Amino acid sequence: MIIREIEEFKLTKSKIKAYLSYIFSQNLPNFSEDIDEEKILKSCKDISDELMGYDTFYILDKNGYQISDNLVFSAKGVKNTFKGEDKSTKSYYKKAVKEKRAYLCEPYPGTFDSKLKVTMAVPIYSQDKELLYVVCCDILLEDILKLINPSSVDSAFGKISRFSYFIISITLFCVAGILFYFGVKSIIVTNFSLNDTSKIFESTILLTLSLAILDLIKAYFEEEILGRHEKNSTNSKTMIKFLSSIIIALAIEALMLVFKFAMTSPKEIIYPICLIVAIAFLVASLGLYIYITKKAIFQK
């Protein structure tokens, strides 16, 4: 679910950065006297306690060289030390130094595994506003998403939610299959006269409803289970497709009733007319809904 995680990160990046910036600013010494590596490491330990251990800390000097080991406080040890490595070319170092504030980089794969992670880089300045260090913290993407959003895609709730959508999608697919079966059966299997077109109308209604349900299943399966989201897309597209199919089915039913009552009971033709008025109201409401959603997307 890498694509889903990246999209979720993009949506919550500002919240994640604000949260991490607050924790780092509350614990790290900055713009003060006697700032040294020991004080910074102690502050990193305090930050690690607040981040519940989802982290790897290391310190860079003002030139971008790593001057500490990769410290994993939750594991009480060192992990894949890169002490002495030049990291001045890393985007998080360059951005943090250039912007003179905390910087949260985009997700990237780890060196020793394929898991995505993000790096929070915070510049440390002396009392005279001279750059001393850059404190970096690597956090797995899935961990930071769980930390910020407990209902994240890879959390327990997220997995249960995807499984629920999967079961519901399978059930709706069976319903659509049944409607399709009876829609085809009413034409092929049942004997009817060309003078009696009711079977054709009934079949068309069943097939239209089957198509509407399939569109609904496809949209929710791709978005909620596979995690595919188009840019600037919303759930309104799914709603529009579904309602359009329902309106078509109702319009066919109304047309069938108009023909039926016109030939058999002209006095009762008022009922299909009322249905047509209701359909017209639905069409107008759907048009208003499309206008509002497109306007909202444009403003966004």
TrEMBL record:
Keywords: Membrane, Transmembrane, Transmembrane helix
Protein transport among keywords: no
Transmembrane segment boundaries: 163-184, 204-221, 242-263, 269-292
InterPro entries for the chain: Sensor-like_sf
Domain of life from the UniProt record: Bacteria
Transmembrane helix as UniProt keyword: yes
CDD domains, per the entry: PDC1_HK_sensor
Family matches, as Pfam families: MCP-like_PDC_1
Record's protein name: PDC sensor domain-containing protein
Organism: Campylobacter ureolyticus
